[in-house]
Structures are given as structure tokens and as C-alpha cells.
Amino acid sequence: MTSDFHRIKRLPPYVFEEVNRIKAQARAGGADIIDLGMGNPDLPAPPHVIEKLCETAGKPRTDRYSASKGIAGLRRAQAGYYGRRFGVKLNPDTQVIATLGSKEGFANMAQAITGPGDVVVVPDPSYPIHAFGFLMAGGAIRSVPAEPTAAFFPALERAVTRSIPKPIAVVCCYPSNPTAYVADLDFYRELVSFAKRHELILLSDLAYAEVYFDDRAPPPSVLQVPGAMDVAVEFTSMSKTFSMAGWRIGFAVGNERLLAALARVKSYLDYGAFTPVQVAATAALNGPEDCIREMRATYRRRRDVLVDCFAKAGWPIPSPSASMFAWAPIPEKFRTLGSLEFSKLLVEKADVAVAPGIGFGEQGDDYVRIALVENEQRIRQAARNVRRFFENADRTLHNVVPMAKVG
Fold it and tell me: What pTM value is reported for the model?
């Protein structure tokens, strides 16, 4: 039997797995690895959400199959959240679908709208599912820079006008994973106008909507732009806002026709999340917001400690204004190694795990992504480990065989 399955052949080696393998080996050898690689929240889910889960679980009616598009109460709660947070009115029956996390929603939307050879425009660097969801569905990717500035649109124009066939969709993600870029409403207005002018579907990933550090400027939704509902679907998640990553609850909201296509695909694939999880997620969305403010304050403190301590260790890192990540330029001395080899070195020589930037796209290879998923004491320890590694860098680099960057 051949292992060269068509869809698998379209996927490159998963570079994060190489770092994970070295990390596992180091831990097996007794090393205390400070893991700042995966964006896996270490904070607990809010107590009132857990209480609702426990209250609901174990009842015969909630142990049965659930609803693929989400129970009605959860969809109403998500519509209520969009109304309060963004001033966007959604019909919970036709404009809201609960997904098994935003990642599943994105991948199944790609299955719903992509034909063989269809082109989709995706930022580089960007979260892997933004590109590979479409590749697995048989599509092709055209890349544009990720930063939401005026320079984005000439690149987008070239991508659309020079692609054969013409692209069907464009992806955006702000606050961005991995770069932590944040878009404003003016950017979204121009993006919606562009999408309409070129008859493009607009897919927005807003998973980090509530992880921001400037209280004067919360990240907006693209659906706040008048007319965006004509072309756009937006994906959100409970994972970071409520530290419910393992619960696998997210949402797709927006254009009714696109959501109907997503709902049809999902109806063949799943029966929705476990009903008690959906009931608890409803309690989260309808409940007090103190837990969100506490989450935000925790990540802000961690960000400040990371930026301060790593700068003192000899690694200046730009301070992110949103998300739970820092997008860190590889120090000049190590840059020729590329992000994968540098990430391996950090595990082996500093007992610190990060995510190599090449895993988010070719343009990410001069960076690593650092997740704020350890407490402040552990972040300070990571900085001390990095400083010692840097102090011995000449000897370390002498023993590393230089190699070309991945990509």
C-alpha cells in the first residue's frame, strides 16, 4: 500500500513536530523545559462555567447527540456578545454557527467553498490552518504581507489581478497569530470595499478579540463595517477569552449563504460539541466579564515581564499590543541558522521551547513566536537561561553546522 496519499502529499513536514520531538527527548532526560511554544492557555476556566458544566453533565437528555450547528441558546448567546461588544446585529438562526473551535470552523469552511485549483489569498506569516485548510481542500495559495498597513492593498491587488484563476477568497487575522498585528476599522473598511469590488469572499479570524492591552482601542470586528455581511464570515473562539482551549468551542458568524454551506458540510461530519460543554459556554458568554479582565491583566503582566527580562538578557523583543504572543526577531548572531535550527538550539542549550517562525510561512523564518503561557517566575527563569546560552554562544555556534534556512 502506498503512503503517498494525495492530500497528505500537499502538506509540508510539520516543523513544530521537530521542536516537539527534541523537547520530549530533553524532558525524558530530566530537563526542566520552559514551554513557550504552543499557545495553550495555562489559566483555569472561570468557576461559574465549570459549575454549569458539572450541573448539566450526566443527565440523560444531555448525554445524547447534540446539534451540529450548536444549541439554540449558545447561538443566541454569541449573537448577544456581538451586539454588546461590536454593535453588530446577528440572527442566531441563520448567521451564527457553533464550531469545534475556530480551527475546525475554518477548515470546514475551506471544504465548503473550495473547488480543485481555486486560489485563496492568505497573509504570510499566518496561522497554519489559514493556508493548509485550503490546500487540503484542493485549493492553491497566493501570499501577501501580513501587516495591516496601506502597503497591504497594492500587494493584494497584484495577488488578485495576476493570479490565474482569479482568487475566490482572502483571509485576514487581527489580532494576528503569530505577529500580534492589530487592524483598525479604516483598514477593514478598505478591505471590505476591495472584496466587494473584486467579488471575493472575506474570511476573518478574530480568535484573539479579547486579548488586548490598550483599553482605549479594543480590536474591532470586520462585521462592524457597513455591508461586510454581504461578503464576510468571521471566526471566534472560547479558547483564549475564557481559557477553554480543550473544550473546543468556537463560532462562525456573518454571511448567511456562506454559513449555510458550512452548516451543510458540518451536518455530514459531526453532531456538535457535547451538550453540557455548549451549555457551559452559553453561561460564559452570558455571564460576568470579570474573568475576561483578569485574563487580560495576567497576559499584560506576563508580556511586560517577558519584554523587560529578555531585553536584559540581550534579546530585545517588540512589545505586542494584543494576542498572547510575542513575535521575536532572531538575534543577529543566530539569524543565518533560520528559525527551526534556532528553536532547536533554545531547547537544547537553554531549556526553553518556542515556535519557529517558518511554521507560519516563508516570511516568518527570521522570527520565533513566544507564547505567554507560563507564569512570571518561569518567564524570568527562561530569560536567565537564554542569557547564559547567549554568553556561551560562540562555543555553541562553533559546534553547529550552518545550514540553509527552511523554505
Answer: 0.92
Do the beta carbons of residue 266 and residue 97 sit within 8 Å?
yes
In this prediction, residue 156 has a pLDDT band, given cuts at 50, 70 and 90, of very high
How far from the centroid of its chain's Cα atoms is residue 123's Cα? 13
Cell triple for residue 216? 482605549
Helix axes 290-312, 376-391, angle to 10 degrees: 20
Residue type, 326: A
Question: Going by C-beta distance under 8 Å and a sequence separation of 6 or more, which residues neighbour residue 308?
Answer: none
13 pLDDT tier (thresholds 50, 70, 90): low
The yes-or-no verdict on residue 406 having pLDDT over 70 is no
Averaged confidence pLDDT in the chain: 92
How many Å from the N-terminal Cα to the C-terminal Cα in the chain?
Answer: 30
Specify the CATH number for 6-44+291-394; select among 3.90.1150.10, 3.50.50.60, 3.30.70.1020, 3.30.360.10. 3.90.1150.10
Which three three-digit cell numbers place residue 186? Answer: 479604516
